[in-house]
Amino acid sequence: MLRVNILICIVVALICTGLWAIMNRPGQEPVWPSRIQGFSFSPLREGDNPSKGQLPSEEEIEADLALLANKTNAIRTYTVNGVYESIPRLAYKHNINVALGAWLDKDLEKNEKEIAQLIKIARENYRNVVRVVVGNETVLRGDLTVKQLNSYLDRVQAALDIPVGTAEPWHIWIKEPSLGEHVDYIGAHMLPYWEGIELQRAVGHVTNRTSLLMEKFPNKPVAIMEVGWPSNGRTIGRAQASPSNEATFLRRFLKRAEKEKYVYYVMEAFDQPWKQASEGAVGAYWGVYDLNRHPKFPFDAAIISIPEWKLLAGISVLIAFMTSALLFIDSRSLSSRGRGFLTVIAFSAASMAVLIIYNYFHQYLTVSTTLIGVMLVTGMTGVVLVLLTEAHEWAEATWIAYPRRPFIPIIVPDQELPMVSIHVPTYNEPPDMMKETLQALSRLDYPNFEVIVIDNNTKDPNVWQPVAEFCKQLGPRFRFFHEDPLPGFKAGALNFTLAKTAPEAEVVAVIDSDYAVEPQWLRELASQFTDTLVAIVQAPQDYRDSKESLFKSMCYSEYKGFFLIGMVTRNERNAIIQHGTMTMVRRSVLEDVNGWAEWCITEDAELGLRIFEKGHKAVYIAESYGKGLMPDTFNDFKKQRFRWAYGAVQILRRHAQVLFRHSGSGLTRGQRYHFIAGWLPWIADSANLLFTLSALVWSVAMALFPDKIESPLLILTALPLTLFIFKLAKMLYLYRQRVKASILQTVASALAGLALSHTISKAILLGFVTSGIPFARTPKNAASHALLRALQSAREEALIMLALWLSAYSVMVIPRMYNTPDTLVWFTFLLVQSIPYMSAVFMAIISSFSTRKNEEITL
């Protein structure tokens, strides 16, 4: 088996490495010239921020100019304020020409000082200031009108004998041709990335737009004042930011520019992290050199998307091998196909995680990016864990070569069958329903049993007295107790009956008050206790009222998955969840672990865990031996699931040391795995609720501050979307294959399960911060909710659903300079996040309708 595991991992590793290699095939591009026309030059370094007055020193500026001295003919600056006035003088020492820029904005008084300083510096450095640039994208930003800008241009032209112009994106020149009448050259920005132009068309786009300007202004030379591509940031249209794309675009452009004899300034020499505040994350990554003045890509060698791909592939393979090894622990019954499936998932998850972390650490870390990184790593870890546990269940539910713990009937003579004491706790239940339950028990085909009914805290004698009388009619085997007050909820009632159990009873069986059991229940299952290691024998919960309404039919479809998939896979490692009906427990073991826990509202699952801690075995058979009644309303459906989820957290908190530490516990690794992994999706639901609320806050911020707040990066939304799709695919597949559900039943199950997500989320979160939420029973034969009352039961879900829809709408209608795939995915994410809440509203509406008498609903 070890050889098979290794062989599968090797094959998948080779395929994975091959995919890494294919995605990183070297691309041959034109060689970077030994000397280019010009760079946009902003000599800021780490910690510098001109908006806060934090500027580089002259020594740092000169060091940058020395670096560029033999690589460029010229540089372009953006302001003459402060230390920037020294740039022409310092550049002259390194034989570099300067396109001297003045920064203009809405502050007219400041503009006057900037213009005066521009004229002064240009006159003082006439030897290497070859042109001046009055304003940068001033019209685009709306800081100045064309008329105002023309006035500044006229003044500077009159004062200087060198070419005077301004810099705007190419389309502003087309839109405002009057600008051309006040300049000596057309200073155009050509940044195809911002226009969403795909890489393959980008250089052609620049050439076409340059030709368009030449045609529009035939008597004015065109200078490309900014041309470039970012190495990091969000995707815009079909333009992807990456180091390889930056290298490819610039090397292709420089080749074309040499042929066309363009005047150009590459945007830009050095990365500028401070720009993230005004231009978004991408603003930091336009440099040919990074913040530490290292080239970000090769100038003459082949271009590779991820130069370190071999190392990353190796790390991915190593992580995937370790992950696969963990997944293969105790998997002797898993077929080769199942092992291959898990290996593919492990390698995919490892590659995804490595790539995400690689991309994250190739950005400049600020307080905000660090916080986002912590969120990203935390979320990614959670998503991967849930993904792997879901994949593990999928594999073990589908590709088991043989069952390790099949149910094997044991036939023994009647005189060797143990006496069974059947306990029926009840509270305020309809007498007719109780009589039906007791009548079914009276028909049991079993030689030696008793039935103890405990009614705890029912106030109305008209409810419990008819049941007491019916027990008398059924004979001495049936005993009835009414206790008021009786603390401890259901667990307290069961502990009470345990004390009243006949001394000779060896087995305690529990059913809910609404269950009608099959006559053969005890005969076919109680014999399992002849194995002295067996402490629990469990049959699944089942329901007889699934055809009463569409609502109950949908709930029934949802219930079946756990008992026909989850419990079956857990049984393979003796790790079932004991549930408080259709269960039998060896009495001596029950007393040895001190009975039912009255502190826990899921006393059944908690008891099962304590019994496993003692090293005992459980037997599970996935066949129905009794049927009860489902919740009648969506509100009761939610209350039941809230209790189960809240109780799960109570158990996790109380048994944390046993579950997470091997020493001092009778639990096997498989049992600890299933108890933790089984509740992990519910914990993920609670995290998803927090994520949803954060998404709403983020979307509101986007609507209020569209120029400051962008949609989250694609990877932040891709992770939860990937998990949602995977879980949905798993459910659809397993319901069809294992539950043998129809497509309609599968969809009904999905809707019913999704409708409980918010309830489970709240229960899990409250479970970690509270400890005393009381037991909530599930009423039977309750009156159907009217529509408004039913909707009231889903009011929280409805509000969140509407908030998500409004957020999605606002995201798509906010006026923006550009639309990005990130925005589209964020829009999709908000809609997908609304599906569970929409399902809850749908289920609430469905629960308000009931069928006519004698009418059946079948999905």
Automatic annotation (TrEMBL):
SUPFAM superfamilies membership: (Trans)glycosidases (SSF51445), Nucleotide-diphospho-sugar transferases (SSF53448)
Gene3D superfamilies referenced in this protein's UniProt entry, alphabetically: Glycosidases, Spore Coat Polysaccharide Biosynthesis Protein SpsA, Chain A
Organism: Desulfocapsa sulfexigens (strain DSM 10523 / SB164P1)
Single GO molecular function: hexosyltransferase activity
Top-rank taxon: Bacteria
Main subcellular location: membrane
TM annotation in the entry: 309-329, 341-361, 367-388, 679-701, 713-735, 798-818, 824-846
Alphabetic keyword roster: Glycosyltransferase, Magnesium, Membrane, Transferase, Transmembrane, Transmembrane helix
Record protein name field: Beta-monoglucosyldiacylglycerol synthase
Reactions catalysed according to its record: a 1,2-diacyl-sn-glycerol + UDP-alpha-D-glucose = a 1,2-diacyl-3-O-(beta-D-glucopyranosyl)-sn-glycerol + UDP + H(+)
